[in-house]
Design goal:
The chain has helices spanning 2-27, 35-49, 58-79, 84-104, 106-109, 131-153, 156-166, 168-173, 178-204, 214-226, 232-247, 270-291, 293-296; strands spanning 115-116, 122-123, 126-127, 206-207, 253-255, 265-267. The protein is mainly alpha-helical and 303 residues long. The strands form three sheets. It has a two-stranded antiparallel sheet with strand order 1-4. Strands 2-3 form a two-stranded antiparallel sheet. A hairpin with a 2-residue loop joins β2 and β3 (126-127).
Length: 303
């Protein structure tokens, strides 16, 4: 039972991460490779603020939103001057900068040793050290953010964002400010990722820079692409697929000797499981991109 509660909690956190990336990547067609940096800033905001005597959740979330919002404005002010592949490279540089700070600023982040002992809050008398109560907290926060993003998807702002992403010249002719629209989308996406980082830090009670590397960004990118960029419900379905299919490998038994006896079959070793998961995610991403390449990379029409 604790295993399934943990998986459900992870699903809630990744639903926030993937859906927030879907706003900027799916609607705005902007390949933001610094999304995982916002995730990291949210987690470290929680880790650095929280203490055994101060284990609330509202203030860390507000701090996370402030930090990630400021980061998104700086990122947007610089990166939105770039276009196409140069934009992706610019956001990747920001992600590398944040990663380098987390590793090397030892007096502040404790470097590669990470920050242990992150407490969980007590809300309305319920101690979220209880896994069921913590799952309820994550589900409630995730539901609120999903509703807000769903309202964004049905708003005029989403139509402006799609216009800027798909037909920037036409959008400019209609008076839509590309930088203002994308900056707002950046802020929304980054703040939601920061909230997911707060929940992630409380889930593990320990964070270090290895949880926020490029491999994590690839997992998020896979979720959005598998669910079809710009599709609200498709993104949520892809979170289930990308998280649950690799988890099924835990129950898969493989032979380690030539005899066809039940004793010759054992689960995949934990040291190999992570590598198999990365391979499976890569195969899913490749298959979806190859099969849906006409939708993901449509040919430009010459008017």
């Amino acid at each position: 039972m604790p295993y399934f509660i943990h998986i459900a909690t992870v699903l809630c956190i990744y639903a926030i991460l993937a859906q927030s990336l879907n706003v900027i990547l799916g609607l705005g067609r902007a390949l933001n490779l610094a999304h995982v940096a916002s995730f990291a800033l949210g987690a470290y905001s929680m880790a650095l603020w929280a203490s055994p005597t101060n284990s609330g959740i509202v203030i860390p979330m507000l701090i996370s939103i402030g930090v990630c919002g400021t980061f998104s404005l700086i990122l947007g002010w610089i990166s939105l001057r770039l276009t196409s592949d140069y934009f992706a490279i610019g956001t990747l540089a920001f992600a590398a900068l944040i990663s380098a700070l987390l590793i090397n600023w030892r007096s502040f982040t404790n470097g590669v040793l990470g920050i242990p002992g992150i407490p969980r809050p007590t809300i309305f008398g319920y101690d979220t050290n209880n896994e069921v109560f913590f799952l309820i907290l994550c589900a409630a926060v995730s539901l609120i953010i999903q509703i807000l993003i769903w309202l964004v998807f049905r708003s005029g702002f989403a139509r402006q964002l799609r216009a800027v992403g798909e037909r920037p010249t036409s959008a400019a002719a209609m008076g839509i400010d590309r930088r203002a629209v994308l900056s707002a989308a950046f802020a929304l996406s980054s703040c939601a990722a920061g909230i997911a980082g707060v929940l992630f830090a409380m889930l593990l009670s320990y964070i270090d820079p290895s949880s926020f590397m490029l491999a994590e960004m690839i997992v998020l990118f896979t979720m959005v692409v598998v669910g079809r960029p710009g599709s609200f419900w498709g993104c949520l379905g892809a979170v289930l697929v990308v998280v649950l299919i690799p988890e099924a490998l835990r129950f898969l038994k493989v032979p380690y000797c030539l005899d066809p006896l039940p004793s010759c079959f054992e689960p995949i070793a934990s040291s190999v499981l992570g590598q198999v998961r990365q391979l499976l995610n890569a195969l899913m991403l490749f298959a979806v991109v190859w099969l849906g390449r006409r939708q993901l990379f449509p040919k430009e029409r010459i008017c």
